[in-house]
Write a structure and sequence with these properties.
By secondary structure, this protein is an alpha+beta fold. The chain folds into three domains: 197 residues, no CATH class; 168 residues, no CATH class; 45 residues, no CATH class. Helices cover 53% and strands 16% of the residues. The protein is built from 20 helices and 14 strands. It has a six-stranded mixed β-barrel with strand order 2-3-10-5-9-8, surrounded by four helices. The chain has a two-stranded parallel ribbon with strand order 6-7. Helix 2 runs antiparallel to helix 15, helix 15 packs parallel to helix 19 and helix 16 packs across helix 20. The longest helix is centred in the N-terminal third of the chain and has 41 residues.
């Protein structure tokens, strides 16, 4: 009790030094609290946005696919997954998996007879499955999204502007007029729909007003990889879209229905394999071999056949065949990779190893990747941004230690007479140490505690402001979100308290060493 009274008295007696140390402790605690909240928000944003809305936790790719960047990778051609129906069956049996989304991706040319082709980055998906897996992250800005079993493509505003700039036509989704597109919306709507280059929009508007603007409601797509070309197909543009989150990062991604993608990139299309035969075709196919001999013998084919011989319009027959196609199982076609979402609480690395063992045991040539590996460069930029935040907090941590240590050391040197007299009347070194520690912890508790409280309040206010950061790709990657969203949690507060305690202990060690070395003789010599 005596030690606490002496410590409290000394704090008030040396108000100037105490205030300086207290302000430093306050600023350190405040900045560490806010910094930890920003780092925590970035990690949570990564979990909710990048993993939850784009990549999933794990990705399965073909074992003979050298490149790991399956979500990105530019012109790199991806291999086809072997036996996707078998892969899907195995995945559905794993209790650690919440959902899966098979996908394809590649770079395609948009052809224009009057000019050079433009290039777009395309994903081929079962759109309803994709939306369900990734939390309906795609929202329409104009037109509509891809319907179940409907052919088409949806693009972003950025892609539309690039196509206009490159190919000199303005994409208008089917069912709309150019007056209903972003051309005739005000600046507020431009921001809402994330127009990337208002100058391009203004130029297109000028051409539209002059009656010179070319428009297109469908695109001629030619898929290609590093070694081969696919087929050029006409695909209707169903709509223009944006992502709810990280739109700045993925602004150049387009989505096609999986069957159109397969046709454009030269993969086997399931629908082209599944045609329902008419009764007349079945009659021919079911003819017995001996009857076939009679039909193609020396006699007249018409006379020797029991099949009706009225004239057949082949164009009408073709239309009937196309109209009578049965619904197809699109899982039977080609996919490049599978995105996997794990159930809550499942360890990522353990799940990766477990799935790899399952596929190895089944002798399937597949490789299981983490989401960070699958997005490659994007992940690296995210890590750089978040590591920069961590280094900033660490820098504050060490600066606070040095400044407080220096201030306490000067205070100890200025109190040589006081400490020497205490030693002369019988105070032991442990008592001096205890007194110094108590003084420092009183300041740390008072000023550091206030710093943590105010840091928490500021963090809550910043989170509610929803400050946009999507004007910069680097900021979007750093915070893994379109808004600045620091997150304060119990663990964040406990971490701040622990950091404050560590700063206090490390800062007081050297001053404590100086104070313990002071002897009564030094006090007498000073006097």
């Amino acid at each position: 009790m005596l030690s606490w009274k002496i410590a409290w008295r000394n704090v008030w007696r040396h108000k100037g030094k105490s205030l300086v140390i207290g302000i430093i402790l306050f600023l350190g605690a405040f900045l560490m609290t806010v910094g930890n909240s920003v780092i925590n928000g970035a990690k949570q944003g990564m979990e909710e946005n990048m993993i939850g809305r784009f990549t999933g936790h794990l990705v399965i790719k073909p074992g003979n696919q050298k490149e790991n960047e399956v979500f990105t990778g530019g012109m790199t051609s991806l291999k086809i997954l072997p036996d996707y129906p078998g892969i899907k069956k195995i995945l559905k049996q794993q209790r650690i998996i919440e959902s899966i989304a098979p996908m394809t991706r590649g770079t395609a040319s948009v052809l224009n007879p009057d000019g050079n082709p433009g290039q777009i980055f395309v994903y081929g998906v079962n759109f309803s499955n994709y939306q369900e897996t990734f939390l309906n992250n795609i929202k329409p800005s104009e037109g509509r999204l891809l319907d179940q079993n409907a052919r088409g493509i949806i693009i972003t505003e950025k892609i539309r502007e690039k196509l206009y700039d490159r190919l000199d036509f303005w994409v208008v989704p089917q069912g709309l007029t150019k007056e209903e597109t972003v051309l005739y919306r005000d600046a507020t709507a431009h921001r809402e729909f994330d127009v990337q280059d208002p100058k391009i929009v203004a130029e297109a508007r000028k051409e539209a007003d002059a009656g010179k603007l070319k428009t297109a409601a469908e695109l001629i797509i030619l898929g290609f990889g590093s070694n081969s070309f696919g087929n050029d197909i006409r695909v209707p543009v169903r709509g223009v879209f944006r992502f709810q989150n990280l739109n700045q990062i993925w602004k150049e991604a387009a989505f096609m229905d999986i069957e159109s993608y397969r046709e454009a990139f030269g993969h086997i299309s399931v629908a082209n394999q599944t045609v329902e035969l008419t009764d007349r075709q079945k009659e021919v196919l079911n003819t017995k071999s001996e009857d076939m001999d009679d039909m193609f013998g020396s006699g007249s084919i018409v006379k020797g056949s029991s099949i009706s011989t009225e004239t057949v319009d082949l164009s009408v027959l073709k239309q009937k065949i196309e109209k009578t196609r049965t619904p197809v199982d699109i899982d039977q076609g080609a996919y490049n990779f599978v995105a996997i979402k794990l159930k809550h609480g499942v360890d990522l690395i353990s799940a990766q190893k477990e799935l790899q063992m399952v596929f190895d045991k089944a002798e399937l040539p597949l490789k299981v990747l983490t989401w960070e590996t699958a997005i490659g460069t994007i992940s690296q930029f995210m890590s750089i941004g978040q590591n920069a935040l961590f280094i900033f907090v660490l820098f504050i941590f060490f600066v606070a230690i040095i400044i407080i240590m220096n201030t306490l050391s000067m205070a100890a040197m200025e109190r040589v007479t006081e400490i020497g007299m205490m030693r002369a009347v019988g105070a032991q070194k442990w008592f001096i140490s205890k007194m110094f520690l108590m003084e420092t912890f009183l300041l740390s508790f008072a000023f550091g505690g206030i710093g943590i409280i105010i840091g928490t309040i500021v963090t809550v206010i910043l989170a509610r402001l929803n400050i946009p950061v999507n004007s910069s790709e680097m900021l979007s990657l750093m915070f893994a979100s379109d808004t600045f969203n620091p997150v304060i949690t119990i663990s964040t507060l406990l971490s701040g308290v622990a950091q404050l305690g560590i700063v206090t202990i490390l800062a007081v060690l050297y001053p404590l060493y100086i104070a313990r070395k002071i002897t009564p003789m030094e006090a007498i010599a000073r006097d």
